[in-house]
Amino acid sequence: MGDLTGDDIQIKMFEPGEIVPPFSVLDAVAEGKVPAGLAVTAYSAGSFPGLSLLTTGYPFGLDTRGIAGWYYVGGGKEITQKLLNQAGVHGFMCIATASEAGGWHREPIETVDDFKGLNFRVGGIGGAVLNKLGASTTTLPFGESFSALEKGVIDGAELSLPSVDSVLGVQKIAKYLYFPGWHTRAAMAHFVVNLDVWNGLTATQQAQIEDACDAVMLKHFVVTDSLQSDALRKIEEAGVSLLTYPDDVLAALRTASEEVMAEQSAADEGFKEVYESMRAYHESLGTWINLRTVPEAN
Amino acid sequence: MGDLTGDDIQIKMFEPGEIVPPFSVLDAVAEGKVPAGLAVTAYSAGSFPGLSLLTTGYPFGLDTRGIAGWYYVGGGKEITQKLLNQAGVHGFMCIATASEAGGWHREPIETVDDFKGLNFRVGGIGGAVLNKLGASTTTLPFGESFSALEKGVIDGAELSLPSVDSVLGVQKIAKYLYFPGWHTRAAMAHFVVNLDVWNGLTATQQAQIEDACDAVMLKHFVVTDSLQSDALRKIEEAGVSLLTYPDDVLAALRTASEEVMAEQSAADEGFKEVYESMRAYHESLGTWINLRTVPEAN
After folding, report:
1. What is the mean pLDDT of each run of 10 residues along chain B (298 residues)?
2. What number is the ipTM of this complex?
3. Which residues of A touch B179 (CB under 8 A)?
4. Which of A28, A190, B134, B298 is surrounded by the most beta carbons within 10 Å?
């Protein structure tokens, strides 16, 4: 930001936990403890359920490219502003990563029945979906998931992007990594600014912050694409099979996902508004996405 | 740019042809006739063949998301700078659209043999590929292609994005629109600045121009995705069948494309450098692209 603004705006970065706990960035910015932060809005979804969809989208929903389209031209930016303002901040989608992996498994998943009684670590909406297929789910933190998987306390875990998981070393303890990441087609973070601080900025400063977020958005998801290639090689070299969930398993997950989204939409108006907006944009794009795609040769 | 820079940099836009002919923007900027411009670099490919790949990528190559990855993290930016500097300008990839359509046809394409003797309008590398399958190709300008197609002088035409073609009204005269756009998986334009002008800018001004291009890149390709949905509906309503080339036709086009790329790489060092760089990045991503993808439901 210093380069971009001739040092008019300078940002000093602090790591999560250094001055604010990692799960309360949005709340700390809203309360003015810090002027701005990079927030995972889902951590405030207890008060505002729609914020969870701003972090992960919905299962089988828009991928990163689609999420960017929804945000910039599908009405997403306006809905995002409204929800963030309700939560006491102004902000912009600033990071959107490539899709996560579907999940690490100790045993292969060959039929829908293989989810029955499966002990699986998965966060948020994905957990509610797997429960419908008979899985027992937990939201253990990353570190505990690793040892629980090692000891066989859980049979599998959805963690993060392959590039993150491989640094944690998950390839040493689970030998099947399944795709696609149906539950998190993209993972987003938002640059949020305290409302009073935001309103005190000049129009030029506001435009510079917004423009910087736009530039970061693009770079971030192409960088996360690129990182997965190296990570997948490393994971395969550790003896892990890279597999795709069978078509009928994906179909069952899709049906269960739609049930969960209908239930959660009925329970909260803000959630419903985000879901319907994302879904309408996705449906308008569907035919085009299929027509433009060329399967990879390798 | 006025908002972003507090009016330090202001850009006055001129339409193609208003002060510089549309095909010579890059040359006019290099010669200092105008300080900067938005250039289709392929129009200067006579002197620098690699510039054609900077405009369209290569057949069956990286799509828009992949091209952005190549540019930002796959070494593409450095190669782009080198080629643009050779051509007398400094510049950045600033626009990358969604894929083009494969082509409009008066009759269905059911086998590879249907390309034999077909009179087809297509520009650049795509034409050399179709020649290998026995088609006669021409690079008629857009306007003339329309009337040639109407009169049956040509049997088909590759033109642009569905959103552009539908405004021209091509749906009234050809009833089959084929996908995917194997020859132009993304279409790029570059913001180019005269070398002396560029070197006279401050570091902040240079960073602001680069950052603005990054922000435009992202918005442009998600906007062009969004525009295709409406265009396809309009095209279908005019009685056009939206089809996909059969798998064996695509396989033959892929093989012929690889032959053409090998020939053109052998003929020019700059072309070879761009192609090998794009291809290496694409190959590194291939497995990941297949694993992350979920086919659309509709």
Report:
1. 76 80 88 94 89 95 94 96 95 93 96 97 92 95 89 94 93 95 95 96 92 86 90 96 96 97 96 97 91 80
2. 0.86
3. 291-292
4. A190
